[in-house]
Amino acid sequence: MFVFLIICLTTYPINKVKINAENSFIPSEPGSYQVSWIDLIGVSDNSLNISIYYPGLEYGEGSQPNIDDGSYPTLLVSPGITLLIEYLRPLAEITCSWGYVVVLVQSRTGAYDLERTYDIISTLDWISEKNNDPSFILYQMIDEDHLGVMGHSMGGNAAILACVNETRFKVSVPIATGLNPWYTIKEDSAAKVHVPILFLYGSDDYWTKDYTPLKYMYANSPKFLVNISGHDHSSIIRDSITFKYIISFLNMYLSGEEEYSSQLFGEYAQEDVNSGLIRLTYDISVGKTEYEISNLVVDPVSVSVGESVTISVDVENVGTKSGTYPVRLMIDGDLVLAHHMHLYTEAKPVTVDVGASEKVSFTYQTDVEGIHRVEIEELEDSFEVVKPLIPEYEISNLVVDPVSVSVGESVTISVDVENVGTKSGAHKLTLMIDGDLIEEKTVTVDVGQSEKVTFTYQTDVEGSYQVEIGELSDSFEVVKPLIPEYEISNLVVDPVSVSVGESVTISVDVENVGTKSGMYTVNMTIDGDMVEEKTVTVDVGASEKVTFTYQTDVEGVHKVEIGELSDSFEVKKPIIPGFPAVALVLGLSLIMIFLTQRKQ
After folding, report:
1. Which burial class, exposed, middle or buried, applies to 128 when counting CB atoms under 10 A from its CB (0-12, 13-18, 19+)?
2. Tens digit of pLDDT for each residue in 558-592?
3. Which domains does the chain have, with CATH numbers?
4. Hey, how many other C-beta atoms are within 10 angstroms of the C-beta on 370?
5. Is pTM, for the whole model, over 0.85?
């Protein structure tokens, strides 16, 4: 934000209205008038609730009005959509103390800027009627030649539109006025306001800090933009600095007190700028911007879908002052682009000086075939969008075969690609499985022809799989295959000790825990050497015993292994009879011979 101090030789003509001479010259403090007020329900055509603050004989609700100074400049005020008029009462009270009638207008719930504008104007009509009613407490207290309008947030938008639609208002004070998607007001609406206007917004107001300066840019002089430090969207309307600039503005432009220029933009305002309280931009120069739009050119007048058309006009400033003008492009009756000359342009900033002309260009593209109407201001033309010679493809007939495969088996996936366009071309297909890109294939298809594209996919992971090609989808399932599966158990070696030359019996159980009958070969290893194998047929869920017989002359411990099972047996030297036993046998034999001979 920059601070502009604009030097002028001539100022805006001011309406002179007498203000109580005892008033303080410090507009951030209360003035010399006692403040009274009345609250009214269901007034005007819209049955609105309003509060009227007026100079009274004593402070308080319903006090008798102070009619010593005749009628008073009057200000109509609209709150924002989220705030009630209660939040504006401090502002209304201090403004009233400076010799103003202040009318707070509570719009209908949910009313937007246009509805609020109508509420303000209908309330003004009601006030004007009551001003001539001798039974009304404020009879002839409203100075209908010195009327102003003020609003906060969406009410600030209404304060702009009210001056566009109602010439009785002589000043406008939009506070924290923004531009949201649901607002019907555009930033350039202020260009249609031809009365003094004061914009105020807070430095911390993220709702309006981008749009309030835009509205100021389009407004006509005299105009003021006050950015108040440290305030957000709501707090600004209860700050004494806000009161100071509002009252200084009203005193100068609605009440005709020229000496308040020092408070509004002169030496006292500069002190606020230097101390960091505000940032101030203003223009009090005299002159009027006036523009003529001509030479609408649309080039080319026929484009294919996807191609752009260039639209241009010449903007001539035939007024007496340089300025900014929003050129709006309408296509088929819809607002498309606003080329903000001098601020936020799409191409480059353009300033139109007095008597000069500048060309403003737009680039527009649409995929909608047909003839399109172009409008800029009162100028009209058209262009046509035609179907281009391009290939266009339709993907259909997704087939997954088979839809159930065993682990290790392949699935075939195919689609038909038809060219329904006007030109032959190549189209790339992407196979996605469970969201992952698996494979891409490119196929060339002539106009009106169809080609089948086939993919092959295999996975060892069981489960369900989602297949996608373009917008088509299907699925297949991978299941556990029908295969035999064996478990070897119960290794038995019998006996575990034998003599040289003797045999040992070795057996195991073979169980089929798979899903298919099969034959299994059992290999027996002794001391690391495979010595024998046997093949056995085992049905699903059944168990078979396999037995081996083994004999060796090698003494020692021998290790037996079948599969992952192991055991051992020992081979020992055989037992040979010794001398004592022979002698015993020989002795017994001799005794038997001796006894036999004696008997004879």
Report:
1. middle
2. 999 999 999 999 999 886 655 565 566 677 777 77
3. 34-283 (3.40.50.1820), 291-386 (2.60.40.10), 393-479 (2.60.40.10), 486-572 (2.60.40.10)
4. 9
5. no
